[in-house]
Amino acid sequence: MLDEKRTVKASKFLSxxxxxxxxxxxxxxxxxxxxxxxxxxxxxxxxxxxxTRAELDHVVATNNKRRFAYSEGGRRIRASQGHxxxxxxxxxxxxxxxxxxxxxASATLPLILRDGLLPMARQDVHLSADRETAVRVGAxxxxxxxxxxxxxxxxxxxxxxRVSANGVWLTGPVPPEWLRVRQD
Length: 184
Fold this sequence. Notes:
Elements: H1 4-20, E1 35-36, H2 37-46, H3 53-62, E2 68-70, E3 76-79, E4 99-105, H4 109-115, E5 125-127, H5 131-139, E6 144-150, H6 151-156, E7 161-163, E8 169-171, E9 179-182
Antiparallel strand pairs: 1-3, 2-3, 4-6, 5-8, 6-9, 7-8
Helix pairs in contact: 1-3
């Protein structure tokens, strides 16, 4: 079984190939972002990054952000969200809670307050249902700042929200008038 360091390394590599650069190991994701597990494992091994099915199962089961999901039956795998390659996760529109949260670094706050939340290289803006997750996300790149998003107001105005398998809320750009900085 993988130790903690190898688990993190494998998770980061899987994020790379299942979210951003499947071609790095010669993979082609289907339109929903899925790839056959056996094809993934063979591609990883062929590129000098061998991983057994048991190790892959361990990474999927222990990833604290639940970044990866197996299909029913476990024959295929995909990233739950965060793609920079074009995929259709097939997520149905969902009614969001009244308020969702976005964590960012304090250095990016002036741009966000001017331009709103943008997907940047990703397909969607990522939001969390709880402030604590937003703090953790924001802390990855500096001093965290949490923005509260008026999700109920946006939804009433026609904005579509979807929720991924791991509980991340996905939506399009969020204009600055729907944001407020959380000071608590």
